[in-house]
Design brief:
Low-confidence stretches: 1-19
Number of domains: 2
Largest sheet: 4 strands, parallel
Number of strands: 15
Helix content: 25-40%
Mean pLDDT: 91
Distance between the termini: 42 Å
CATH superfamily of the largest domain: Response regulator
Radius of gyration: 21 Å
CATH topology of the largest domain: Rossmann fold
Shape: globular
CATH class of the largest domain: Alpha Beta
Structural class: alpha/beta
Amino acid sequence: MAAAAVAGLLASGCRLGSAEVTLAAPPGCAGQTATGITPASVKVGGIYPLSGPASAYAAVAQGARAYFDHVNEQGGVDGRRIEFLVRDDAYQPARAVEEARRLVLHDRVFALFQTLGTPSTMAVREYAHRRRVPQPFVATGATEWGVGTARPWTIGFQPSYVAEARVYARYLAEVRPRARVAVLYQNDDFGRDLLDGFREAIAGTSVRIVAARSYEVTDPGVQGQLANLAESRADVLLDVSTPKFAAQALAADAAMTGWNPLHILNSVAASPAVLKPVGHDKVQGVVTAGYLKEPTAPEWADDPGVRAYLAALARHAPGADPANQQVLYGWTAAQAFAETLRRMRCPSREGLREAMRSLPGVKLDTLLPGITLTTGPGDGFPIESMQLARFKGDRWVSFGDVIDTRAGFPPVTARRP
C-alpha cells in the first residue's frame, strides 16, 4: 500500500509548465515573476524522502496532496487549481538540489512548497534564493528559516526546534527541577538545533544534561546508544530522533530493566504510527509537545476541521492512515499554503514571498485552539506555541495550557556553529 502511494505521488510529477512570464497587472505588480501561475492554475513542487532511511515522512506528501485535491474539488484557490508535483530525494541533500532544479527549470513551478528535512532544505535554500523562487512552509523546525532577512524566499512552518526545546525545559523545571537528562540526538542540524536549544533553555536551572549520544541517519539502529545512555542513570531521556530511530529507541527503552526514565519524544517522531509497532503498553507515559489536533481522539469527533480532514482523506488518499500525525501535518501545511495564496496582493513569486512573511494570526482548521500562524517584520516563525501531551491508552492526551515559547525567553537566534 505504501509503495502504491509513493508511485502515485511520483506519477503526477512529470509535466511541462508554461514559459516564464513577467507580470503586467494588477497595478503595482509590474515586473514581478508569474512563472507557474495563471488565473486558472498554480503549479507547485514538493521534495520528500519517499524512499530511504526517512521514508516514513512520505506520509507528509500524502496529506498535502489530499488537501490540494480537496481544494481543487471545491474550485481551487480563488479559481486556481493547484497542480502538485512531488519529487523523491531519499533524504539526500545533493539529490534534493537536483530535484529542485528539475522542478524550477523543467516543470516551471511557481513555488517549492515544502522540502522535508533540515539538511535537504538547507541545500535547496541557496538555489531557491539565487533563482528567487519561494520556498514556503518547509517541513523542518530549524531556526535558520525564521531568523534574519538574508534569505527571505524560505520560511518554516512548525515551531522551531529551539521553541520545542523550551517547552520541555520549562516542563522539567516545574515537575522535575533537579532532573538529570540523557539525550539521544540525530547528528545533523536537526538534532544539534534542538539539543543546543535545550541546553540554552535549562541554563540557570538545576536541570542538567548528564549524557548525550548521537547517531547517523545511515546507522542501522540506536540500541547501542541507548545502552550507553542507560549507564548514566539519568531520570529523563530526551529523544531527538526521526521516526525509524524513535521506534527503535522506544523499544530499547521499554526492554531495559533497572532504568525507567521519563521518555520525552520530540514532535517530529511523535506520530501514533511510530508508537503502535512498539506496543501501546510499552509507551505509556511518554511525553511530547504538539500543535495539531489528534484526529481520532473523541474530543475532536464533532470538530468541523477534523471531520473535513477525515472525509477528504477517505476520498483522495484512502491508503493513508488518518491517525498518522505526518499525514495531518502535510494537510495542515497545505492549508497554510492555500491561505497564503489567498492573501497575495500580487499573483507573483514576489507576492507569495511577501504574503508568507506577513501572516496576521491565521487560523487553520487542524491547529489546536489558541494556536495561529503569525509572521511579520523580524518574525519568520509562523507557529511559536505548543501544548504538552502524554501517551495514555492508545493516543496522545494533551495537558496543561498552550505554551507561547516567546514568553519568558529571549528571541530565537541562529544556532552557533
